[in-house]
Amino acid sequence: MRVPMSWLSEVVDVVPGSTGEDVAAALVRVGLEEEGLETGGVTGPLVVGRVLSAQDEPQKNGKTIRWCQVDVGEDEPRGIVCGAPNVVSGADVVVALPGAVLPGGFAIAARKTYGHVSDGMVASAREIGLGEEHDGIIVLAELVGPSRAAGLAPGQDAKELLGLEEVVVEVNVTPDRGYCFSVRGLGREYAHGARLDVSTAFRDPADVEVPAPHDGDAGGWPVTLAEHTGDEVGAGLAPGCARFATRVVRGIDAGAPAPFWLRRRLQQCGIRSISLAVDVTNYVMLLTGQPLHAYDAAALRGEIHVRRARRGERLTTLDDVERALSGEDLLITDDDGERPVGIAGVMGGAQTEVTDATTDVVVEAACFDAVTIARSARRHRLPSEASKRFERGVDPAIGPAAAQLAVDLLVAHGGGRVEPGAGDVRYATTAHAPEAITLRGGLVADVTGMDVPRGQAVELLEQVGCAVAPGDPLAGGESVTVTPPSWRPDLRADVDLVEEVARLHGYEHIPSVLPAAPVGAGLSFARLQRRRVAQALAVDGYVEVLTYPFTSGDRADQLMLAGADPRRRAMSIANPLSAQVPLLRTSVLATLVDAARRNLSRGGDSALGGSLALYEIGQVVLPPQDLPAAPVLGAERRPSDEELATLESAVPHQPVHVAGLLSGERLPDGVQGPGRAADHADAIAAAQLVAAVMGLTLAATATQHAPWHPGRCAELSVGGAVVGHAGELHPRVTLALDLTARTVAFELDLDALVTAAAEVDARARPVSTYPLAKEDLAVVVPEGVTADAVLAALRDGIDEAEVDGVRVGDVVEDLRVFDDYTGSPVPPDHRSLAFALRLRAPDRTLSAAETAAVRAAALAGVARVGGVLRG
Predict the structure, then answer these.
(1) Distance between CA 69 and CA 71 in Å, rounded?
(2) pTM for the full model?
(3) Which of 141, 160, 199, 279 is the most buried (most CB within 10 A)?
(4) 146 upstream amide cis, omega within 30 of 0
């Protein structure tokens, strides 16, 4: 919200001598955030000039310039070249003299042009930051009005005249402080921040005399607030309008311009001047915080009806866009409620727009439901100054006063007359008065640590505008009843009142107390395992990312998931952040690819030629096919155990997964030699690293599983249970997702791994000081037998090794594959696998007989999978 200092000073007594910095500091003191201070951006001499003569001089290029003699209050007039068509003799204009600097750093100096030395510049509105008009120069009689222009003198300071030196304070308003989107609200907040007495320093602009409400056409405009439409969508919704005030002005000149001071204030607040009616309604909105709308009375077909939209209705709004309406939209209609003429609180319709030909105007000042307006504005992508205020809550008490301010301005600057009486319709079942709040004594001290005396706390709440029951102390365990003001819908609970006391008393008085660290058991086992996994992947060169868990409906097709794949069964979000991603992800990889694509489109890691190594740990949502609907439980009581059980049964399974993605080079070229590209083995190795840090070993089996390449995909399991997959992504997947070719990835069910890790004996094995025995075995197996299967057979055989009937025991320290060979002399359809076997006993040196027994047992195990010792 932007507010000029002069406008602010009209509603509150600004401390004499205060600068823009002082005003901003006072607002920051009560919780608002300063966005900046702004002035006109013009420095140096900018004066009023009177054109004494303007001689046309056609040029060879076809352009006609005017050689002007301009009186700027000096002994002699200045000669200035001007190309504007509206410069005429006798006109008072704005002149930038040499030495002036205009917005954008444009410096003015005397220079020769078109055969003359131009000693300054006659300025247009855009050149001095007064608007976007650039078709001609500023003629002050047209800009400020003939009466004000009559008192102008050549050489007068134009910056002061036009308000170009005035400071505009801009603050950021939080969503719960909607009343601060007005000069009225900021005036109150400044009084609080400057420690002024609101009752004397603040002048409420909404404190105007309003005629008594009138029924019928004699006062206001007839209005009906419908409860709902009867449509199956709108029938279950609240009416959406608590109050609808109207005033009627007849005989107005709608084509008359708004006064300069009003247009200037709109511009300073960031709003473009459009017409008298629109400018007046915008001005009153900025002043009071109450959005208004003006209708052409002649275009309205009888009584106004406020109702929900019906299915299939359409409306052409003021921006000339035809919009399909939703059953949740609140509409302004006429013609017995049959013709929509506006989306309530968002934008009016083109049919009833006020034009220059309009003579009778109906002014609306309504109080609409905040949630309804917020949803309509987002649904139609129509954020507006009005919807921004409605969705934060407007003061339901000031609608008639705002309408009165508007019609007074319309009559003052457009003529006409105001019809006596005022229309003011309220929804019968809607309570307009704020609900009283019970504030427990001592709560301020309990929450903030500040010892605020009773009298001061009551005074601060009354400064806010609250009504506090007199005579009840705020300390000693007793409570008081506090009724918030109508403009503070954010005050709903006792802690909200505590915050008001704290911010007005001063946040600087809150003591800084370091809380004692509670004694706890530390991280849970599951969280500890996740942290270990994250650290291991980071050390291995992966970068952690965090993506939104929302995905699109076509992502399953892009990942080539089969029609019966359960990962296609994704839950949709009732109110998604974006219509493009309305589904909850069923795999982390489904959203991790978005982060990869975004990074690759921006060059990735330029040092590695666009290579990426990303991972993410996050939840996925896996709804079963027969998931029941979740019941809607009320807040008036604690739900029963049965209701909670029913609710919990409707919550889908949400396990934590870990996924990683590698693209480009796994190792770059360097002094150590040439690099190498990432392949499916790297993805499998990363998955095995995840399991290893948890004390687990993954079994990898070749399989086909989307979105991986059917020939380069491994199914990963622990104890026979599948926990994930890894490998190279299918070429069609990388093409559909704009990823680098041969991108590899893995995804594991981290919750399943944590469960398996909880059953592993994590105690460290004692370190043996006895010598190591080394055995290398080369075995020939059928080509279809995996290395994992041979390793498992070797271990099973070794566990059964005996010497003289006595088991050798657990003596395998390391067992790994170090060679995989096909070709002569290995028979066709077979492969040779070489294993390094390292043996060590914890309590003795292994004898030759024990080593031989282990070797023989290992070979016996290999024989079970069709393997023989290679000759």
Answers:
(1) 7
(2) 0.68
(3) 279
(4) no
